[in-house]
Amino acid sequence: MELNKLKVYFLLFRFSFSISAFTFGGGYVVIPMMRKYFVKDLKLISEQELLEMAAIAQSTPGAIAVNIAVLVGYRISGLKGAVITCIGTILPPIMILSIISFFYQSFRDNNIISSLLKGMEAGVAATIVDLLIDMWQGVLKEKNLLLTLMAPFAFLANFVFNVNVLYIIIFCSVLCLAQSFIKNKLGGVESE
Amino acid sequence: MNNIIFILFVNFLKIGLFSIGGGYAIIPFIQEEVVNTHNWLSLQEYTDIITISQMTPGPLVVNTASFVGIRIAGVLGAVAATVGSILSGFIISIALYNFFKKHKDIDSISNILKGLRSSSIGLIGSAASTIILLAFFGTPSFDINEMSVNITAIIVFIIALFLLRKYKLNPILIMVLSGIVGLFFY
Q: Do residues A27 and A92 both lie within one domain?
């Protein structure tokens, strides 16, 4: 039992560390990685839970990538898990930035590094689109018109009209609250 | 020395607390605190950090905290500033998570959770579109004058997406491979 716990702690640290070390651009880019390791490989959390965590992480202050990692750790092994994934996530940037702060000029002007990073952009885009396709199929399965429309609505509001993420999330939550309220009322009438 | 560590911690706690939504939205706020109020970085250095953040792993807030911390007070400063910048997110996200889990049996709460998932997809899509624009056209905006079509990036994108959908390849492997392609074509 003790050994198992230690093993889970070690896995949490290992995966949060490597996800953080390989995730260029931060934020949502971590979600496909989290899904690969914690949902698909380890099966420690479900896809729905991951999406809920992503939503909570972005409506909370601070860095989205750190918040998601904290929630994944917390869900899997409580407060200790949260601290472990948190440390695993912030360690790579601290180390990398410490090194870069001394060699910034040569790092920025290095052709090899900049073309490597340029190439990665397209790869990052593909991993996120892959994730979006799967998740969108999940929403369609709910067969709820409001939920189906909500994803493109949130996309337009944020991407085209630059509405703050927090407002979008609050607005969507209120809509869902209203929907379940109306459904309950109608359901009540029907059963009478 | 202890004093400056404490000041770093408190100020990045404040920055972390007020940077909601992440990404590009928080750039001006951090700039106000770090460049204008405290003079910890010059504007040039701050612009450099934004570039570094795009080129390296890790979130902007954490990267800025580490960079400023190490400049002002060495490794200990970096740790103090970084921990400060993530602390509020750590506490508040766990509190929110617990709230939702505790009440998930209530119909309205579970419906809100479903809504959160759905809107989350839209927001991730928005972030993805920015990255796609940047990779394909070299600019995150729709300014025709600044756009230049990058055929290599489009081909890499299509092949990578195919490999992910069809063969469920590891995302990290995809990143490494596309980076290697970048080495040869840019």
A: yes
